[in-house]
Amino acid sequence: MSAPAPPASRASARPRLLLLAHGSRRPQWARPFEHVLAALRAMRPDVDVALCFLESMEPSLGQALEAAAAEGCGQLRLVPLFLGTGAHLERDVAEELRRVRELHPSMQVELLPAAGDSEVVVQALARHALRELDPSTEVLPWLHALSRGPRGSRDLQADQARTLMHWLLQGRLSDAQAGAALVALRMKSESPEELEGFTRAVLDTVPSLPTTRAVVCLSSLNGARRLPNQVPLLAALLQREGIPVLVLGTEQNDGRAHTLPLWRALGLPVAARPDQAAQDLERGLAVYLDLEELSPELRRVLRWREQLGVRNSAHAVAKLLAPVRGPSLLLASYTHADYAPRMTHVLAALRQPALISRGCEGEVPAHPERAAQWLRVDASGSVHEDSDDAPAADDPAALRARAAAHDAALTVEWTRAVLDGREAPPGPLLAQLRRIGTLFEGLHAAPA
């Protein structure tokens, strides 16, 4: 009886597919190719696939080939993500492949045609050009999918959502199409993948504030109605601890106590431009920047609420923005509990460190009268849950905070009293400050 054949090796069973891009000194240049890699892995989890670059980025082609050889890869297929066959492929890549074949003759390496030589890619680029010329032909099926009622509606894929938000930001859709899309999404509610696509689209367009310091970022859009708006107090207390804070807000006339008037009354800095906000952050300040100055396009989509009567997806996206170039901790809040897992999905996908809670009337600061439930996203994309103890029902600080909400002047007076030490801050806010401080310290040790 003959001996059983040895099991097939991983290399022979799964040839490696190696995607090759040119490379650039700008880190964000690699994003589209990383998206191709992620899409390929999602479509075919059984395929062993990796990405490398010809120059300026790692892993280089040589590093990727050596790694494959070291791992015992028997078959490797190199796919150049280039639009044409030029000197790089004919000279540089060919020379590297000759070198590797001489050093590792047992590894079979096949160079496939450049992506641009494929008719599939040519047709896709043509469709892309026509779609950008007139998005209507593509958006109509998406509107149909979104608008089929609570049981029949279908979610967009993340890349479709990203494209849709780009069109909304650019004003490429008719008013009827934009309104239909926003109302349909409001009725259906965004899926986690749609919210991720929308957020990535906005991050594609907003400027990234250059800072060498770690920063806390938060959006203040809801305002307060029955309780004091504690955003200026939270920001000022963080600044006192040496933590720069960027507050993104916008002026609204909806009867709520919004942050900007309180911020100005307290003498806190308001930036007229993103570069001025970056300078204030470098100085360690808490600074307010109107969303209109950061992204007039996103502010325009937010204004659709005035015509449609309901909030739209731009409101959720604005709460997920941390538009700074250095390390940042995002503070985010939600009003409806079903948004919590969607927000954590987006922030985990972005690898954005964040602290999320129900907040106070939709704003970030902790509610002075109830226990806080926390969701924390770390730099690796992991999500953690925690909670604080509820304050006593007759807690004096919480009662005085509620009394301060009767009008803006009382809120300013109470905020000043807390900052001056004449009043105690609510216990939940103090607990939140401690959490933020701990996470902020960890930003410097977080992986890039």
Number of domains: 3
Main sheet makeup: 8 strands, mixed
Helicity range: 40-55%
What's the helix count? 21
CATH fold-level name of the largest domain:
Pyrimidine Nucleoside Phosphorylase, Chain A, domain 2
Count the beta strands: 12
Cα gyration radius (Å): 26 Å
Q: Given this structure, which CATH class of the largest domain is correct?
A: Alpha Beta
Give the structural class. alpha/beta
* CA-CA gap between termini: 57 Å
The largest sheet has its strands arranged as 7-8-6-5-9-10-11-12
Q: Averaged pLDDT, please?
A: 89
Principal-axis shape equals globular
CATH architecture of the largest domain: 3-Layer(aba) Sandwich
Strand content: 5-15%
TL;DR?
The protein has 448 residues and is α/β, with parallel strands linked by helices.
Question: What does this protein structure show overall?
Answer:
There is one protein chain. The protein is α/β, with parallel strands linked by helices and 448 residues long. The protein has 3 domains: 13-119, Rossmann fold (3-Layer(aba) Sandwich), CATH 3.40.50; 134-204, Transferase, Pyrimidine Nucleoside Phosphorylase, Chain C (Transferase, Pyrimidine Nucleoside Phosphorylase, Chain A, domain 3, Up-down Bundle); 208-443, Nucleoside phosphorylase/phosphoribosyltransferase catalytic domain (Pyrimidine Nucleoside Phosphorylase, Chain A, domain 2), CATH 3.40.1030. Helices cover 47% and strands 13% of the residues. It is built from 21 helices and 12 strands. The chain has helices at 10-13, 31-43, 61-70, 87-103, 119-133, 136-146, 149-152, 158-170, 175-188, 192-205, 231-240, 259-265, 274-282, 291-294, 296-302, 304-308, 313-318, 339-350, 396-403, 408-419, 427-443, and strands at residues 16-21, 48-53, 75-80, 108-111, 215-220, 245-249, 270-271, 286-290, 328-333, 354-357, 373-377, 383-387. The strands form 2 sheets. An 8-stranded mixed sheet has the order 7-8-6-5-9-10-11-12, with helices on both faces. Strands 2-1-3-4 form a 4-stranded parallel sheet, sandwiched between helices. The longest helix has 17 residues, at 87-103. It is globular, with a radius of gyration of 26 Å. Mean pLDDT is 89; it is low at 1-13.
